[in-house]
Every structure is written in C-alpha cells, then in structure tokens.
Amino acid sequence: MKFWSNSDVPSHGPFVPEKRLLAAVLQRAITDFVFGEGELKEGARSWLMDEEPTDAPLSFRFICEALDLDAASLRKAIQMQADLETQGLLAQGSVN
Question: How far apart are CA 69 and CA 88, in angstroms?
C-alpha cells in the first residue's frame, strides 16, 4: 500500500524537497566554517569562499542561484559571522 504520492509534493516555492536539500547543504557548510575546526573548517571555507565554475554541480554558486540568493552578499555575511566567532563575540544571543 502506498502512503504518499508525488502529487502531494509542491512543485514550486520554498518547500520543494530539492530546495530544502540544497538549503541544508548550505547551512551545514556555513556551520562548519563558522564553528568547525581543522580540515572541516578549511573544507567548508574552500567550498564557500573559493571561486569555482558557475556550472559546477552543487557548487556554492549553483546552490545560491537555485535558492535565489546573492552569492557575494551571502559570502560577506558568512565571513562577518566567522570573524565575530573568531573574536569571541558570537555568543548565544549576543549578536542581533
């Protein structure tokens, strides 16, 4: 017995499963860059900050385009957040 149907999955909007997956990949990379250490942090930094071909599948730029995000602005915001964490200013609830 089938309990789900593809017809129940939205075909557009923020709740499309593929967009949710891309957002989760982006969120994990940001978390690893801001709060990670060692190779985990460096790998995330490389994926987030290095320039790559725009047609590379699952690249930072690809995901930003798919989610309608401005890659340059997001990179600046991520770097600011990482800088605050490095300075010890990004405590729970201390930055608005």
Answer: 28
